[in-house]
């Protein structure tokens, strides 16, 4: 008995082969993968207890090995992983000792071992501890080895993101329908959560960002029990997740009549989003798209303080973005290719003032881009 895996054996085999080709080109004898997203990409294994130490050890050739705490190794790995080789650590034989013993077993204790120095879950203490246990090994930074393979999505990955888009649309629809003077932002949050789950969504990697009034200017802010009043804007930025693949969506709701300036800003963000999406096509660079986005804002006297967008795909807490894989940022030389997926958030945010916003999750196609999120692109009225 085993869970149905999100991808075929052939796709997992191709992913492993691509990573091992990179390892061989870099003369790397083993790769210690600790980022949950990269472990999932290569094995399908995932756990909500991602704070527990885990690793996928990929040798230069042959099969990878999962290292997990014993109860996950026995009661989760066999039922939720394409990788079948596993090792367990316990309180008496902890993670680093188990990992070092595996390196000895694989014959790479004196070799070049890649570690993901960019990973949140590889602490300085653990890295130094592994060095101490394997003093003859040469450790090299392998951050980016797996991420490079994740930048362009396969058709199967895009299918999961499309499904996630349907989930986020359901959450957005439910949140907007609840918005009304006299309600509270907690009512909106409750409706969004219920709809995301009822639509078949997995747990989210960020909480939904839902706030109202002046608090809409706060970045990455959640609900606080605030009452919705006439003249308020409600900010909603949420994601849907299916098989750990996500799509995000951002919309605003006006409660009654809002100031003319906010009506103007609403026109601006929609114009900027359209210009940014029109710039996305194979052959242009990430930096080119970011420049067009910034110029579209600047034409209206607004200075963009952030990047134009970021890659979407596999996500685990603490975030839904794949910004470590690829983003649309200033002077970024990466050339866009068909199969890349981005979230393009365009808020008009000023300190202490209400924010109006819009976004889409888009796919780079052979000729341009396709919006995977299919939700009315407008300022909603309540």
Summary tags:
single chain; 382 residues; alpha+beta; Creatine Amidinohydrolase, Chain A, domain 1; Creatine Amidinohydrolase; 6-stranded mixed beta sheet; 6-stranded antiparallel beta sheet; elongated
Question: What report would you give on this structure?
Answer:
The chain has a six-stranded mixed β-sheet, sandwiched between helices. The chain folds into two domains: 9-150, Creatinase/prolidase N-terminal domain (Creatine Amidinohydrolase, Chain A, domain 1, 3-Layer(aba) Sandwich), CATH 3.40.350; 155-381, Creatine Amidinohydrolase. It has helices at residues 9-25, 36-43, 70-75, 95-106, 124-133, 145-150, 155-178, 185-198, 260-279, 286-298, and strands spanning 30-33, 55-59, 65-69, 86-89, 112-115, 138-141, 209-212, 233-242, 245-254, 309-316, 319-321, 327-328, 341-348, 356-364, 369-371, 380-381. The model has no long low-confidence stretch (mean pLDDT 97). Helix 4 (95-106) packs across helix 5, helix 7 (155-178) packs antiparallel against helix 8 (185-198) and helix 9 packs antiparallel against helix 10 (286-298). It has 382 residues and is an alpha+beta fold. It is 34% helix and 22% strand. Strand 3, helix 3 (70-75) and strand 4 (86-89) form a beta-alpha-beta unit. It is built from ten helices and 16 strands. The radius of gyration is 23 Å and the shape is elongated. The longest helix is centred in the middle third of the chain and has 24 residues, at 155-178.
Secondary-structure map:
Blueprint (H helix, E strand, L loop, with lengths): L8 H17 L4 E4 L2 H8 L11 E5 L5 E5 H6 L10 E4 L5 H12 L5 E4 L8 H10 L4 E4 L3 H6 L4 H24 L6 H14 L10 E4 L20 E10 L2 E10 L5 H20 L6 H13 L10 E8 L2 E3 L5 E2 L12 E8 L7 E9 L4 E3 L8 E2 L1
Helix pairs in contact: 4-5, 7-8, 9-10
């Amino acid at each position: 008995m085993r869970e149905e895996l999100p991808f075929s054996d052939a796709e997992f085999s191709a992913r492993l082969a691509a990573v091992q080709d990179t390892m061989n080109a870099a003369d790397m004898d083993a790769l210690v993968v600790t980022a949950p997203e990269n472990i999932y990409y290569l094995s399908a294994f995932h756990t909500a207890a991602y704070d527990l130490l885990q690793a996928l050890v990929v040798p230069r050739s042959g099969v990878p090995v999962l290292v997990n705490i014993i109860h996950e190794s026995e009661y989760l790995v066999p039922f939720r992983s394409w990788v079948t080789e596993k090792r367990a650590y316990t309180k008496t034989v902890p993670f680093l000792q188990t990992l070092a013993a595996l390196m000895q077993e694989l014959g790479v204790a004196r070799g070049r071992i890649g570690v993901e120095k960019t990973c949140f879950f590889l602490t300085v203490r653990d890295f130094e501890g592994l060095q101490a246990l394997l003093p003859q090994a040469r450790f090299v930074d392998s951050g980016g080895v797996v991420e490079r393979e994740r930048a362009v999505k396969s058709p199967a990955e895009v299918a999961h993101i499309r499904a996630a888009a349907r989930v986020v649309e359901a959450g957005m629809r439910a949140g907007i329908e609840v918005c009304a003077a006299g309600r509270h932002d907690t009512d909106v949050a409750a409706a969004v959560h219920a709809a995301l789950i009822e639509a078949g969504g997995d747990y989210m990697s960020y909480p939904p960002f839902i706030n109202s009034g002046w608090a809409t200017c706060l970045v990455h802010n959640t609900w606080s029990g605030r009452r919705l009043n006439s003249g308020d804007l409600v900010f909603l930025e949420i994601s849907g997740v299916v098989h750990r693949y996500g799509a995000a969506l951002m919309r605003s709701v006006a409660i009654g009549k809002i100031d003319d300036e906010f009506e103007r800003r609403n026109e601006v963000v929609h114009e900027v989003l359209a210009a940014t999406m029109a710039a996305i096509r194979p052959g242009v660079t990430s930096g080119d798209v970011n420049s067009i986005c910034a110029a579209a804002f600047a034409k209206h006297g607004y200075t963009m303080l952030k990047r134009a967008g970021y890659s979407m795909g596999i996500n685990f807490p603490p975030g839904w973005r794949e910004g470590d894989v690829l983003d649309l940022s200033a002077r970024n030389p990466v050339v866009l290719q068909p199969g890349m997926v981005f979230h393009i958030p365009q808020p008009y945010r000023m300190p202490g003032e209400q924010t109006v916003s819009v976004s889409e999750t888009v796919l780079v196609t052979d000729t341009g881009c396709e919006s995977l999120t299919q939700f009315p692109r407008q300022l909603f009225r309540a």
